[in-house]
């Protein structure tokens, strides 16, 4: 008599034997048979159906339908009974061999699930052999319905007739196709009337068949939006799918706001962090995507900057900056002589959005000093550069200086040009690297060090002889540094060397504190120029000093224009004004990028 422990294994062996019989009869792998005993506790009535019988090699469409209960947010997983699986409420599958297949679908909401099964019948692929004679019994079949974008397989047969030429017209305007068995792709859902003409030497016959093309389920949902998102600024949101037809969209925010459609525009009235969710669906499927967004204050805007003009050495030069910012600002002034100053504004209660910052700085050495001003607020930062004149004259900026290439590097020749409202004759060029050249309004120069320079040009006119001049800052980089150089030498988003920077926060607590001897604000990564490479400058071709007489202007006047302006018809006279003039010292916030988040990005419209 067998031991009791072996007798206890008999029920388990019988269970495994039953599973093996199920596998053999229904072409199911062992794991699929086990899956049919999955939990079945989701409170819905789930129905699985298909459009079989179909011949082997033809497409079978399988559909899951929730007859009653809540179908929102359900995910559908199909097992076709031949070892293959797929996701979606409506799916299609091609069986390679004839037989009966027990396909099933599991609907799940992430917690509970429900299963439903459907029997798929697959006939062997067979084209009957007709008897000779005129064409009779012309018949067209297809594996419709088929999802848009997938091939529809057609088969033409006759009961009688040989040497038959089958010509298919697919009803969508595409060219006819010949052959007894053909396939065709319809990109757009709908119903199409397909015409089949059979022809041989004894006659012809025509028949029609209607095919149904269903929606393609949405896939690859992505969210794109304006970046960064700023308070009181139009923010654009867009949802896209990689594939899908007749897709509808609905947006929701964690603050309760709802929007419909693939795109919407919204203006946030305050800084906030919230979740944005979009749902995309059509008749055969649904997907969703979400993203946490952060709405910040608008970056500062420099309205204008004034200075007291050229001053003798050791005498302070006065500067005044007018800034638009709803939140407090911190400004860092790098004076170009190794000194940095910090000035704050707007930390008092009920501060105005227009902030006036006044600062002064004396220089110990005569030079044209490049001043870098970085302005921060809770929404970001902007950078502006201009020239301060100590112990030297300040030009009237009456000519425009340009150069090519737009992003110059040391060691490569640069072509400079000076233009004015009248033809120019002779020019003296001071390249701020020890080289002064005499020549015409177009001249070539090569810098040997990567650094920032103030190019000065003083020219005489041919008609109505007079002297006109101007300065312009040029940034000479290296080939490795070129990506951060802007067009025509304009340098953007560069923090001054040694100047601390800040990361915008949701409150002013980080900014609103007493200044210290050495600022400890955390830094936002911003590019700076590479250190100069030591080398020996090329001796000057002509050592001719530029005639200039220092001029002291005791009142505030606009800073020099650093980008080309409209060419004047006569020598202009500078007049102090509170309104910034084109081409001067107002850097606008950096334009928004065209991609971020889960997908592409949406350009922000220009500020009003």
Brief write-up:
The protein is mostly beta strands. The protein has 3 helices and 41 strands.
Structural class of the secondary structure composition?
A: mainly beta
- Unreliable spans: 26-37, 481-608
Q: Total helix count? A: 3
Beta-strand segment tally: 41
Using the alpha-carbon principal axes, give the shape: elongated
Query: What average pLDDT do the residues reach?
Result: 78
* Amino-to-carboxy terminus distance: 97 Å
**Strand-residue fraction?**
35-45%
Gyration radius, rounded: 39 Å
Helix content range: under 10%
Major pleated sheet: 5 strands, mixed
Strand order of the largest sheet: 2-8-7-4-5
Would you give an account of this structure?
The chain is mainly β and 608 residues long. The chain has 3 helices and 41 strands. A 5-stranded mixed β-sheet has the order 2-8-7-4-5, with no helix packed on it. Strands 10-16-15-12-13 form a 5-stranded mixed β-sheet, with no helix packed on it. The longest helix has 17 residues. The protein is elongated.
């Amino acid at each position: 008599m067998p031991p009791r422990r072996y007798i206890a294994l008999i029920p388990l062996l019988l269970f495994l034997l039953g599973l093996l019989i199920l596998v053999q009869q229904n072409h199911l792998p062992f794991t699929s048979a086990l899956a049919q005993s999955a939990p079945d506790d989701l409170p819905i009535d789930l129905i699985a159906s298909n459009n079989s019988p179909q011949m082997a090699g033809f497409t079978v469409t399988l559909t899951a339908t929730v007859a009653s209960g809540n179908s929102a947010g359900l995910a559908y997983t199909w097992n076709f009974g031949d070892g293959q699986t797929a996701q979606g409420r409506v799916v299609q599958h091609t069986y390679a061999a004839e037989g009966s297949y027990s396909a099933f679908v599991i609907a799940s909401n992430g917690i509970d699930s429900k299963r439903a099964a459907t029997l798929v019948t697959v006939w062997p692929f067979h084209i009957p052999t007709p008897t000779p004679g005129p064409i009779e019994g012309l018949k067209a079949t297809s594996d419709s319905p088929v999802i848009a974008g997938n091939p529809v397989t057609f088969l033409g047969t006759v009961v009688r007739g040989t040497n038959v030429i089958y010509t298919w017209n697919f009803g969508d305007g595409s060219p006819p196709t010949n052959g007894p068995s053909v396939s065709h792709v319809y990109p757009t859902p709908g119903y199409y009337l397909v015409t089949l003409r059979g022809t041989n030497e004894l006659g012809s016959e025509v028949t029609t068949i209607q095919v149904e093309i269903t929606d393609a389920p949405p896939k690859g949902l992505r969210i794109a939006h304006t970046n960064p998102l700023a308070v009181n600024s139009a923010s654009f949101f867009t949802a896209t799918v990689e594939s899908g037809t007749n897709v509808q969209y609905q947006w929701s925010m964690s603050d309760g706001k709802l929007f419909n459609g693939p795109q919407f525009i919204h203006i946030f009235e305050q800084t906030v962090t919230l979740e944005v969710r979009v749902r995309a669906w059509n008749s055969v499927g649904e997907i969703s995507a979400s993203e946490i967004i952060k709405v910040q204050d608008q970056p500062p805007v420099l309205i204008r900057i004034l200075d007291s003009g050229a001053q003798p050495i050791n005498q302070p030069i006065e500067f005044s900056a007018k800034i638009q910012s709803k939140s407090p600002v911190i400004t860092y002034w790098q004076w170009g002589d190794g000194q940095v100053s910090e000035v704050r504004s707007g930390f008092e209660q009920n501060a105005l959005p227009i902030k006036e910052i006044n600062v002064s700085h004396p220089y110990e050495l005569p030079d044209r000093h490049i001043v870098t001003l970085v302005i921060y607020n809770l929404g970001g930062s902007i950078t502006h550069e201009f020239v301060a004149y100590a112990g030297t004259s300040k030009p009237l900026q009456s000519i425009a200086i340009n150069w090519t290439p737009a992003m110059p590097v040391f060691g490569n020749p640069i072509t400079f040009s000076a233009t004015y409202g009248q033809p120019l004759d002779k020019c003296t060029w001071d390249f701020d690297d020890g080289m002064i050249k005499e020549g015409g309004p177009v001249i070539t120069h090569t810098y040997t060090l990567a650094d920032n320079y103030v190019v000065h040009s003083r020219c005489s006119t041919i008609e109505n002889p007079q002297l006109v001049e101007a300065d312009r800052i040029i940034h000479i980089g290296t080939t490795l540094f070129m990506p951060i150089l802007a067009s025509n030498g304009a340098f953007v988003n560069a923090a001054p060397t040694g100047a601390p920077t800040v990361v915008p926060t949701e409150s002013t607590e980080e900014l609103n504190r007493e200044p210290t001897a050495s600022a400890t604000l955390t830094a936002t990564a911003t590019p700076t120029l590479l250190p100069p490479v030591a080398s020996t400058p090329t001796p000057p071709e002509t050592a001719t000093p530029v005639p200039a007489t220092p001029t002291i202007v005791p009142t505030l006047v606009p800073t020099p224009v650093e980008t080309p302006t409209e060419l004047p018809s006569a020598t202009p006279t500078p007049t102090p004004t509170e309104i910034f003039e084109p081409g001067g010292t107002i850097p606008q916030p950096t334009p928004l990028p065209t991609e971020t988040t889960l997908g592409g990005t949406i350009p922000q419209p220009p500020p009003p």
